[in-house]
Amino acid sequence: MVRITSSNFSITQICQSGQCFRMNEMEAQGGQRVSLVAHGRYMEILQSGDDICFDCTQEEYDALWKHYFDMETDYAEIIAGIDADDQYLTSAAAFGNGIRILRQDLWEMIISFIVSQQNNIKRIRRCINLLCERYGEKRVSGNGTVYYDFPTPQALANATLEDLYACNLGYRSRYIHETASYVWQGCIDLGKLYELDYVGAKDELLKLCGVGTKVADCICLFALHKTDAFPRDTHINKVLTAQYPGGFPFDKYADCSGVLQQYIFYYDLMGVR
Predict the structure, then answer these.
(1) pLDDT (tens digit, 9 = 90+) per residue, 181-207?
(2) Could you tell me if 55 and 45 are in contact, meaning their C-beta atoms sit under 8 angstroms apart?
(3) What is the per-residue pLDDT across 207-237, written as a single tens digit (0 to 9) for each?
(4) How far apart are CA 135 and CA 156, in angstroms?
(5) Are 184 and 157 in contact (CB under 8 A)?
(6) pLDDT given at position 29
(7) Domains of the chain by range and CATH?
(8) In terms of pTM, does the model score above 0.90?
(9) Is 273 a residue whose pLDDT tops 60?
(10) How many of the other CB atoms lie within 10 Å of CB of 35?
(11) Active-site positions?
């Protein structure tokens, strides 16, 4: 077990923020508890107030989860840098101040956000779980929990369209099959995307079948950690129209606009009406 204290970390807010589809809330007494499958590992996290407990060794936490949860970034400093006169953004950041931008697996995010198109979070989770169970490697965690790794590009490229349709993917089945084939055949080097800036990485991602502007921005933010990416969906567009008719002040928040996007999204999704 690894125990840490953080005033800008809420495992529930992270779970509900729409950036991770294999993190699930669990029953807990006197706190919040989630399970997570990421980077081939299974882990449970328990939180009570500012006290967070990771069910892993210190070595695993230092090698994987500390980076995954972006624990070295000072989110309090980001929030403190918000213009005090911007009442909406100040309120959104205060409401979702426990959200952190996860450093997730690039390949998993490509497929996950292709699946996310014209879809709701509950259905996205179900589709991804089906893909993992049918095409991912079966594993067993240290506490005996059976879970499945995310399918490789080869596994999805070798699946038939009919089988992918059976995972309730609809028209996205072709996108996934073609993108998996493109990656497996080496037509794109995903590792090199980390070396590019946001604009360069986004341009490369747009070459993939089924990846449009919004999906590319999500991948840039939630996998490549390009925090100047600012994905726009119906929630974000509604807020921009209502609160920022003259345009969002990107010039003020160039390097952290993606973090602010998550505060806005979560506030519009979960905030008190």
Answers:
(1) 999 999 999 999 999 999 999 999 999
(2) yes
(3) 999 999 999 999 999 999 999 999 999 889 9
(4) 7
(5) yes
(6) 78
(7) 2-95 (3.30.310.260), 106-222 (1.10.340.30)
(8) yes
(9) no
(10) 18
(11) 214
